[in-house]
Amino acid sequence: IKEAGINFADLEPDSFDLPMGFATGAGVIFGNSGGVSEAVVRYAAGKLNLDVPETVDLMPTYLDKGFKSAEIDTPIGKLRFAVVHGLKRAHELAEKIEKGEEYYDVIEVMACPGGCIGGAGQPIASSVQHRATRAETINNTDKMMSIHRSQDNPYMKELYETFLKEPNSDKAHELLHTHYHSRKRIEDEEIQFFDASDDSRCKVKVCVGTSCFLRGAQEILGHTLKTVADNGWNRYFEVAATFCTENCDKGPTITIGDQVVHKATIADVDRILGEEAKKREA
Hints:
Helix 8 runs parallel beside helix 9. The chain has a 5-stranded mixed sheet with strand order 4-6-5-7-8, covered by helices on one side. The chain is elongated and about 80 Å long. The protein is built from 9 helices and 8 strands. It has helices at residues 25-28, 35-47, 87-98, 128-144, 154-164, 170-176, 210-214, 217-230, 266-281, and strands at 67-74, 77-85, 106-110, 190-192, 202-207, 237-242, 254-256, 259-261. It has 2 domains: 23-152, Fe-only Hydrogenase (Larger Subunit), Chain L, domain 3, CATH 3.40.950.10; 190-281, 3-Layer(aba) Sandwich (Glutaredoxin), CATH 3.40.30. It is α/β, with parallel strands linked by helices. The model has no long low-confidence stretch (mean pLDDT 83). Helices cover 35% and strands 15% of the residues.
């Protein structure tokens, strides 16, 4: 974005193109942990003629403990909901369900703290209060909107009537559903910047996964490449960018030889490269 000369502060406000620019309150609250479950309740309430308001407020504004459960009465019995954010808490809940200790009809899991409001697509929130403020803003936006339920979106109605036919149809399932697969990074999944044929050189790896990138990994990688080139250390070091080291909460992460440095700085790079170069020059 910066290379293209785009400055968001100078852009004129404009509307999103239709139909993607039209949203209901149920779509807006998807950004909060608990928002998906509440959207489900709003949909079910309309289909089952439940006597509940369009804005159900099933879950609190911000789940500071990472887990919340709720239930509602329906003509077909009670529906039990569980909302969890953070994969550690999700794992704990999954274990309880596997053991038969818990049962829920709807389980919502968001990996990011508080939901998308605490995800990599947002400025890094330095406190719980920041995420709570974002969640409150989303909920207030929902309340100000004229349509709160997904099924009342006129563009969605038209889409189903003319193309998808009905919810969970074969066409809807084919186009709107997905399957999840393990995407854990492997050690050799990296980009080499210098000739990697010399195994005697010290390997320098800079993680440029999303979390590390947001914390300055790009600057560290650029500085590392420049330092190695300017000092003629190409014969000592092999520099590569790796996509994830599974230490997202400790970034930026760099590996120089056997040393793994979390929350790395340019000063750390200069110090360790200098020490390693002296050893090899001796």
